[in-house]
Specification:
Structural class of chain A: alpha+beta
Radius of gyration of chain A: 30 Å
Radius of gyration of chain B: 17 Å
Strand content of chain A: 5-15%
Largest sheet of chain A: 4 strands, antiparallel
Order of helices and strands of chain A: HHEHEHHEHEHHHH
Number of helices of chain A: 10
Helix content of chain A: over 70%
Number of strands of chain A: 4
Strand order of the largest sheet of chain A: 2-3-1-4
Order of helices and strands of chain B: EEEHEEHEHHHEHEHEE
Strand content of chain B: 25-35%
Oligomer: heterodimer
Shape of chain B: globular
Distance between the termini of chain B: 26 Å
Chain lengths: 285, 223
């Protein structure tokens, strides 16, 4: 084991240039993948925010009793996908009117025509044109409701666009991952190709395949880890600058930050390890 | 003991060796001569199973080409020391590490490795060059490192493929003397060469020649 460790690490010293190129290649691949992941997370967050904006307004008849109102509240609350319900009384509605139009309703009319309503917020995953239509038609059947309103066209557009963005993102992510694997394994193959004489001599003096393979795998793993560290630092700096100088609204991964950087290191190590394992196989045949 | 029984070797559909028989006993010194391309290297490669026979059986100590599994080939090679015309030294490490490498491969203990490497380097007269890099050595010195590397595992057989092919006559003579010294300690040597002067300097050796894909015994006086 001591020999494997020494040999694995001395590979760095002996082939500085190719090792550096491998590390840079891995870090560029990870930088691309990581940046893409951040963009994807931001798009996802944006879609969630937009979905949260979608509310179902349930207008109530003027003459319903408090108990009837409470029953409607309970029945809506019992539906799946409902996140929260807020009650807007007639007076609240008049206040909102005043905020929106800058004029008191009573200065125009001598009574308040605005109905009381429930504003139903939904869980983001539940915000789809079909599911909301089902919910709306259920609410309309409840006694004491006058009408149900939601922004159907926005919702349909959102559902449609989000699906497209997710599909395109997954496609781009897969392409990026595949190109990263090819790029890394080809670069590592060059590193190992430079050592083909060493491998040949190892075979001739009686080294087993496992013995030859181990230092290369260790080297690939460490190269991947170094590439991961470099990529994590670059992504961190990039996000720091973007969030400080361009947009404060950019989500910087929040609670998942540690997991994200951990994933970058892990992906780098796995890329390096797999790249080495695939490349060394050719030279051991 | 080395034994080749009715062994044939083909390379890209052309036959190089045809029904060759050979026995090398422990402690023997055998020269393998023949013109360039006659198949000397191929015959030596058979012995460390770098080339498979097209037919026939090769027996090296306890290993037989009929029954050996791929994963056992490294263990066979550890019982045979191999010396190459182009030395095949590892350019990225010094003399000591080049020799020690063979022992690391076998999983030997570090302390044990140091002792054996220093002894092997003393045997070839290169103790003082242990920290030099291969490119800092002369051709003869490089070949001595190659010999030390082949010796360090204390093999019972040394296979040398034109070990003096790249060296001047004087250095070639020195290398031969070294091989004779090793042979006198009981190690069998099978050496391919086309340098007949060297062969003549070793009267005790057996001489085999590859001629028309066959292996024939040759008397010293006919060389």
């Amino acid at each position: 084991m001591g020999y494997v460790l020494r040999e694995g690490f001395s590979g760095f010293k002996r082939a500085k240039l190719s090792t550096t190129i491998s590390i840079i290649t891995i870090s560029i691949s990870l930088l691309l993948l990581g940046t893409f992941a951040v963009i994807f997370a931001n798009l996802h967050e944006l879609a969630d925010t937009l979905r949260r904006e979608v509310q179902v307004e349930v207008f109530l008849l003027d003459d319903i009793s408090v108990s009837q109102r409470n029953r409607i509240n309970e029945q809506i609350g019992a539906q799946s996908g409902v996140d929260s319900i807020s009650y807007i009384s007639k007076d609240d509605a008049a206040e909102i009117f005043k905020e929106e139009f800058g004029e008191d309703i009573y200065s125009v009319l001598d009574f308040n025509p605005l109905p009381a309503s429930f504003r139903v917020s939904l869980q983001p995953d539940y915000v789809h044109a079909d599911s909301i239509a089902t919910l709306a038609s259920f609410i309309e059947t409840l006694e004491g409701t006058e009408s149900v309103q939601y922004r159907q066209s926005l919702l349909e557009m959102l559902t449609d666009r989000i699906q497209t963005v997710v599909a395109v993102s997954i496609g781009v992510g897969i392409l990026l991952a595949i190109s990263a694997i090819f790029l890394v394994s080809n670069t590592i193959r060059l590193t190992i190709y430079a050592k083909r004489k060493l491998i040949q001599t190892m075979k001739l003096v009686g080294a087993t395949r496992g013995f030859i393979r181990k230092p290369f795998l260790l080297e690939g793993f460490v190269q991947g880890l170094c590439g991961g560290v470099l990529a994590a630092i670059l992504i961190y700096i990039m996000l720091y600058f973007i969030s400080n100088y361009f947009s404060e609204h950019l989500i910087v991964l929040g609670d998942y930050e540690l997991y994200f950087y951990g994933a970058v290191l892990l992906t780098g190590s796995i890329l390096g390890l797999l790249g080495s394992a695939v490349s060394i196989r050719r030279f051991l045949r | 003991m080395v034994s080749l029984s009715d062994v044939s070797v083909s390379y890209e559909k052309s036959r190089i060796l045809e029904n060759v028989n050979l026995t090398v006993h422990p402690g023997e010194f055998v020269f393998l001569v023949g013109r360039t391309g006659a198949g000397k290297s191929s015959l030596l490669k058979l012995l460390y199973m770098d080339v498979p026979p097209a037919s026939g059986t090769i027996t090296i100590g306890e290993y037989s080409s009929d029954t050996i599994r791929n994963r056992d080939v490294p263990y066979l090679r550890r019982t045979v020391g191999i010396i190459f015309q182009d030395m095949k030294l590892l350019e990225d490490r010094n003399v000591y590490d080049n020799v020690a490498f063979t022992l690391h491969v076998t999983g030997a203990k570090r302390k044990n490795i140091k002792q054996r490497v220093l002894r092997a380097l003393a045997d070839v007269g290169l103790s003082h060059k242990r920290s030099s890099m291969p490119h800092e050595l002369s051709g003869g010195e490089q070949q001595r490192v190659g010999i030390a590397r082949a010796l360090v595992n204390e093999p019972w057989l040394l296979v040398a493929d034109e070990p003096t092919g790249n060296l001047d006559p004087s250095t070639s003579g020195d290398i031969l003397e070294l091989l004779i010294k090793i042979n006198n300690r009981g190690t069998a040597i099978l050496m391919a060469t086309h340098n007949y002067d060297l062969v003549r300097k070793t009267p005790a050796a057996r001489i085999l020649q590859i001629r028309d894909r066959q292996l024939v015994d040759v008397e010293m006086r006919k060389i």
